[in-house]
């Protein structure tokens, strides 16, 4: 999988919790990639943009 140009970011709500976060790259066409910030060379989860939006919306719902 070619991740050249991927711009990884963490949530602005992530604190300084020893790197226990996920990072998201949502700038590549047609896919959103998610990885563990503690294991950047490990496995990725890959979503369509629509599936990622649905996940984020659901996660925000109290």
Automatic annotation (TrEMBL):
Residues 6-60 form the DUF397 domain. This is DUF397 domain-containing protein. Residues 1-22 are annotated as: Disordered. InterPro entries: DUF397. It comes from the Bacteria.
């Amino acid at each position: 999988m070619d991740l050249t140009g991927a711009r990884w970011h963490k949530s602005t709500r992530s604190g300084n919790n020893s790197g226990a976060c996920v990072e998201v790259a949502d700038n590549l066409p047609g896919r959103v990639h998610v990885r563990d910030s503690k294991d950047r060379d490990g496995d990725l989860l890959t979503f369509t943009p629509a599936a990622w939006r649905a996940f984020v919306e659901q996660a925000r719902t109290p």
